[in-house]
Amino acid sequence: MTIEMLPDVMLPDVDVVELDNGFRALLVERGPLPVVASVLWYQVGSRDEHTGETGLSHFLEHMMFKGTPEFGKGQIDVQTIKMGGSNNAFTDNDSTAYYFSMAADRWETALEIEASRMRGCLLDPAEFASEKSVVLEELAQGEDEPWRPLYQAVESMLYMTHPYHHPVIGYKEELERLEAADMRSYYERHYGPNRACLTVVGAIDKKRTKKRIKELFGGIPRAEERQVAIREPQPLGERRITMQTPHSVTRLCIGFPTCRMGERDDYALDLIAHDLGNSKNSRLYKRLVVKDQTVTDVSVMNETRQDPGGFFILAELHPGVSQEKVEKAIREEVLALTKDGVPERDMKRIRTQIESSFLFQNETALDLAMKLARFEAGTPNGYRTLADVLPTYESMSRKELRDTAAKYLQFDRSVVVWGVPTPQEPAKPARKKKAKKVAKKAPKKRAAKKVATKTKPVAKKKAVKKKKAGSKTK
Amino acid sequence: MSQSTIRLSIAERQLKSGLTLLSVHNPGAQTFACVTSLDVRIADEDPALPGVANMVGECLDEGTSKHSALELATATENLGAMMEGNHRGGVVMCPATQQKKATKLLREMVLEPTFPAREVKRVQAEVMTEIQAEEDDPRTVAGRLFRKEIYGNHPLGRPMHGSVESVAAIKPKHLRDYHRTWFRPAKGYIAASGPFEHEDMLDRLERSFGSFRGKAPEKAPLPKLELAKTGCNVHKAMPREQVHLFLGHLGVRRTDPDFYKLSVMDHILGSGPGFTSRCSRKLRDEQGLCYSVSAGIAGSAGEEPGTFTAYIGTSAEHRQKALEGFLAEIDTIRKEPPSEAELQDVKDYLTGSFVFALERNSNLASFAIRARRFNLGFDFIEHYPDMIRSVTVEDIREVAEKHLHPDRLAIISAGAS
């Protein structure tokens, strides 16, 4: 069964604005609600950082809310709420994106803010120092999450030479040493119209919007072109570690190196991920959750990027279950997939699910603006790739999926990371005292653990789900 | 285009069974959502079996009179739909073209679950492991201690999932008993939202749910909730990087006449977006104490009183400073009216942003139910901006003084020491 998709579901009517300085904007007019969403997507991410400056992309994302000559400290947020809207941002390995959702009758201030902070971010040293504390708190928060250290350990071994090796949020020691001048230099090198694309979706006047974009962004000078990252060599064998964690549940994360976003194999890996682990009908769910009852849930992610990405399998074990049994079952199911491929009846179901997910990505103006920006920035053909997405899924044969699975899901190229409980000291009982006002002595600072982190997946109820890639400012 | 032009088209039909059908017309939408919300509370579960209501919700899609769990999942996925149960019913979302079949599947899941023993046992083990995993999370641990401190032995004071021990004691029979007793149509709601005419939608819902009969027993009255007489200060040490601090006390019901004034106050104090609220501006933006911080009372208001909750995740050495920061902000908002400009900013935000909640069909269906359940009226959205605009700076000070009680705060933390 295939869903009857309306013609504009995948590729809406897009007006493209191209400026001489390399800036591109995609505009989509749609109603009926009086809302507008904008996404400014920079081709700047943690892959652009060098040793000693890890975490700068994400830290800079925070600082982009700290003021410009036109919008002083706090004014970006104040102006946003005056627009009846909200804003946020995230940073991942390849990109940094800033977005607004606004009421349609007052949204254009968002354009002014984005133009102002493309080259005019103040990066005040005092604000830099204050925000560094916030970023370090964010890092600490991530280290307490059960999945992040595992996922980050997998990435650090999956990419031994490519800058995907280091966490988006950076290393604590390097963050602590960063100076405002380092950020200034990074900002000036990487932020410019040629490294950005804008998408605007909603109840807009296209003609007026085009005019404002030209006025606001047309005079901004270019930044450096992006450098090609070093190519990751083929792995010479399986890499694995066992991490001791403060958590009482055993978790497993397996990663395989794969391909770039938008390549044909990327589509095949999407279908394979669904067949392996993303529904009750998937192989790993039926085997591990239902038949063996060894894990609470299992999740599979095809995370392709602008350089070759990764394919991840995550599982959370029931207490007392043999790690070997779980890993053996996963290997057997992956091997069966590489030998037998995806059954034809399942191909139809999986395609339907994927098509439906694209339909739901159109429900809100922000979802659509984000989807357009992601494809525009992440694929060689830009947003027009969307027209080919569903036909490409439809064109894939069982044999092609089998071959693609065999090509990438090789355990002798994989990274296997186990997170196991550490025997802990008995917990102290909760201290309680009745008090009208609290006067608690400030506790001593604990030494921070040296654990690499990344804003990535978290465990959720009933599913080992991946959070939106990247790290959010707010 | 202006926000004042927004009108929702909602129609309802009352069935003899006491079930209310609601239709939200969302022209141009390519998706569809249907939400079932029956008149049953977590508090209605057997107090000897905490977690049974949650288990019912978890197991609704584990097998029905017509389909096994796998068959039901296959039927759902074949539609490109997403469906899940909860202790009040469930929700299905799908492409608009599949709404007829999806509605039937939702009906089947909500009204005809069989709770097969093998599947219940499996889900039971999953929930028990999840509870164990949550015990590792200092934020969850502190949150639970906080609710226990505020609600005491009231059902809202116990974890919705139950405990490992209580879940282990649950049998399929308990789920069937709960379902047979409480999944009844009277005072319940089925709401659908999509690009369909009201009569067609209501007819379809009636065909699906018209045979739903039966009456639930009278609900036992819930214990009366009262503000604690004094505050407390509790810390549970856990070997983590951060400490998660909650402070607050019993809050208000959704029907409280001060609800809208409190919503505005929340956004000034600690619920505003970005760094616009006082708590995030002072504790995060100016002092760099945290990544996550919030404070508010209206967001948790429901049929029973919610809580006033201020939360921060911070390093252990910042706990006291964060606590003092919260207390200072609470004190200020109780004593001094905000400036006209500060209030106007929040009004601009609230009157402009509420429209974003109307973009998804699932939100629209849930809104229709909320509007009926709390007697807000379907034209609530048309009046909402005026209600917000009428709030004055003196209103903010008055409701803060009336509803925030710094001498009765439960101060609970878990994590790094």
What does this structure look like?
The complex is a heterodimer of chains A (474) and B (417). Chain A is of the alpha+beta class and 474 residues long. Chain A has two domains: 15-217, Metalloenzyme, LuxS/M16 peptidase-like (Cytochrome Bc1 Complex, Chain A, domain 1); 239-422 and 451-472, Metalloenzyme, LuxS/M16 peptidase-like (Cytochrome Bc1 Complex, Chain A, domain 1), CATH 3.30.830. Helix content of chain A is 38%, strand content 18%. Chain A is built from 15 helices and 13 strands. Chain A has helices at 56-63, 75-82, 109-119, 125-144, 148-158, 172-177, 180-190, 206-217, 264-277, 283-291, 323-340, 344-360, 365-378, 386-395, 398-408; strands at 15-18, 24-29, 35-42, 86-91, 96-103, 196-202, 239-245, 251-257, 295-303, 310-317, 415-421, 431-434, 471-472. A seven-stranded mixed β-sheet of chain A has the order 1-2-6-3-5-4-13, with helices on both faces. In chain A, α10 (283-291) packs antiparallel against α11. The longest helix of chain A has 20 residues, at 125-144. The mean pLDDT of chain B is 94. Chain B is built from 15 helices and eleven strands. In chain B, α3 (99-111) packs parallel to α8 (198-209). Chain B has helices at 52-59, 69-78, 99-111, 117-134, 138-151, 164-168, 172-182, 198-209, 259-271, 278-286, 319-335, 340-353, 361-373, 380-389, 393-403; strands spanning 9-14, 20-25, 31-37, 82-86, 89-95, 189-194, 232-237, 242-250, 290-296, 307-315, 410-415. Chain B is globular and about 60 Å long. Chain B has 417 residues and is an alpha+beta fold. Chain B is 43% helix and 18% strand. Chain B folds into two domains: 9-209, Metalloenzyme, LuxS/M16 peptidase-like (Cytochrome Bc1 Complex, Chain A, domain 1); 232-415, Metalloenzyme, LuxS/M16 peptidase-like (Cytochrome Bc1 Complex, Chain A, domain 1), CATH 3.30.830. In chain B, strands 1-2-6-3-5-4 form a six-stranded mixed β-sheet, sandwiched between helices. In chain B, strands 7-11-8-10-9 form a five-stranded mixed β-sheet, sandwiched between helices. The chains are: A alpha+beta (474), B alpha+beta (417).
